[in-house]
Design brief:
With 370 residues, the protein is of the alpha/beta class. The protein has 2 domains: 234 residues, Rossmann fold (3-Layer(aba) Sandwich); 77 residues. It is 35% helix and 15% strand. The strands form 4 sheets. The protein has a 5-stranded parallel beta sheet with strand order 3-4-5-10-11, sandwiched between helices. A two-stranded antiparallel sheet has the order 1-2. Strand 4, helix 4 and strand 5 form a beta-alpha-beta unit. The longest helix has 23 residues. The N terminus is likely disordered.
Length: 370
């Protein structure tokens, strides 16, 4: 279930997810808890806490169940910093009921009702709950998003003018859903092969593939076989041909998806994670997430790993510079992936990165929530 939980420890328990992760079904199964909010304190040591459950209706009447974890000594009505944590893509109920056996616990009627609209409206319902906890003071709120979660925060910003003090991201999407998904399906492999060219001579040899493929976004598929060239190397023309072929596959997949009814269950009726309208928006929505976020006068901080399999830090930087320049800080973490772990997609989150991110959130809220 969703929760409002404490960040008294410096380490953040990070979501494990991907954006519309075709080709990585195991990542979908490992999605973590969804929308959370958390009081923040600077202490790096674990503390005792108390938890209270809540249930709030979303705009369409669906009940979002969650849990608020308070620091020890908290009294009802006390003004405290809160962090609302927003998950990324995954197979779970709308309150993120999931687990290794989570597919057996998921109610298809609920998970199958998910749309782009319900995602930001569910977040809004939990945001309302967080504001009630701190007597409706947005200066005490940070919203933290991972992966697609940042896109849903952006949609909230486009529809709700109550700007939180801080928006923080981890592997967050800042370009548009359309451009990132097209890159994933038709640009990621060429990008990765270029990244494997460690001597910068414009040619990626099979020896360079062997040595470096695990540190590129295409390691998400957990096989190097497609990147071993029969002629022993990839030159510039090879990469152009590769992209042309994959663009053809992308167009075929788009045509198939767009032919589906918007309300049809995606990916299937047995275990739906959304309606097809949600899947279609990855082919259609060309509004940069950063453009939506710019509707808020919040502070922004974004953490990206430089081997992220789902979003490329440099592409997100361009979105920041276009819409949030002077208002956002981006920190790129060497050798870390989508969940700021040492794999390109999954966690666990690197301890130093978790501590740094937690410190940045804490520092900001300690200044704004007085």
């Amino acid at each position: 279930m969703s929760s409002i939980s404490v960040l008294k420890s410096a380490a953040i328990l990070a979501p494990l997810t991907c954006i519309a992760c075709t080709g990585a079904p195991s990542a979908v199964a490992l999605e973590t808890k969804a929308v959370m909010a958390a009081p923040v304190a600077a202490s790096p040591s674990p503390v005792k806490q108390k938890s209270l459950s809540f249930a709030v209706p979303s705009a369409d009447g669906t009940i979002i169940n969650g849990q608020t974890d308070f620091p020890a000594g908290y009294t009802p009505g006390q003004r405290i910093p809160i962090v609302v944590m927003v998950h990324g893509t995954g197979l779970f109920d709308r309150d993120a009921n999931y687990g290794k056996t989570g597919a057996d616990r998921i109610n298809p009627a609920v998970s199958g009702s998910t749309t782009v609209q319900t995602q930001w409206q569910d977040l809004q319902a939990v945001y309302d709950q967080a504001l009630k906890t701190v007597k409706a003071d947005t200066k005490c709120i940070a919203i933290f998003g991972h992966s697609e979660g940042m896109a849903n925060i952006g949609l909230l910003a486009a529809h709700d003018n109550r700007a939180p003090a801080l928006v923080a991201g981890m592997g967050g999407l800042l370009e548009s859903p359309k451009t990132v998904f097209k890159w994933q399906l038709s640009g990621r492999d060429a990008y990765s092969l270029h990244k494997m060219d460690t001597n910068g001579d414009g040619i990626t040899t099979n020896a360079e593939v062997e040595a470096n493929w695990m540190n590129t976004p295409s390691a998400v598929f957990n096989t190097k076989a497609p990147f071993i060239h029969p002629d022993g190397q990839w030159a510039g023309e090879d990469l152009v041909k590769l992209q042309d072929v994959q663009k053809g596959f992308y167009q075929q997949a788009k045509t198939t998806a767009m032919a589906m009814d918007d309300t049809a269950p995606y990916p299937n009726a047995k275990r739906p994670m959304a309606q097809y309208s949600w899947w279609k928006h990855w082919y259609q929505d060309d509004t940069p997430v950063a453009q939506n976020l710019a509707n808020w006068d919040s502070k922004f901080i974004f953490y990206n790993g430089d081997i992220d399999s789902q979003v490329v830090a440099s592409r997100q930087k361009k979105a920041i510079e276009a819409y949030l320049k002077g208002r956002a800080v981006q920190k790129v973490m060497p050798g870390l992936g989508h969940s700021l772990g040492h794999q390109v997609l999954l966690g666990p989150m690197d301890t130093a990165a978790a501590n740094a991110l937690s410190h940045d959130i804490t520092k900001t809220l300690n200044l704004t929530c007085r």
